[in-house]
Amino acid sequence: MKVFAFMLHLAVGLIVLAVWTVVGFFLYVPLLARQIAVYSLVLSAASLGKGKIDRAQASLEKAIEFYPRGFSLAWRVITDSHEEREHYDLRSPSHVGLFQLIVELAWSALFWGWLALTLGRREWAYQLIDFWRHSRQTLGG
Question: pTM here?
Fold first, then answer.
């Protein structure tokens, strides 16, 4: 029975890693692009002697660490024993709220749609628009 449980645990962990590879990348590139742009603007203002870069630098560092950290957390599903895992209450206010997640997903969809239009892949943009409309209808919006 322990072998079956281990194999099931391993299979689920590998699926989590595969899903994170796609979903994480979908979120990571737009997040990184936005934080680089914000950091560049703040850096420009600071160079003119009008501000500090501490918060923008911390945000950029968090954005850089986002994708690798997701892999690290997903890998823990496979490697940690149940007793060693941290227990998160996902309803806790210390974690990212549903609204912020929706904002990040919307930003990512807009970013990839803009990129598709810019690169001349209009069918990708239309697919994103259709997906967005369908998801709004499904959620009752």
Answer: 0.70
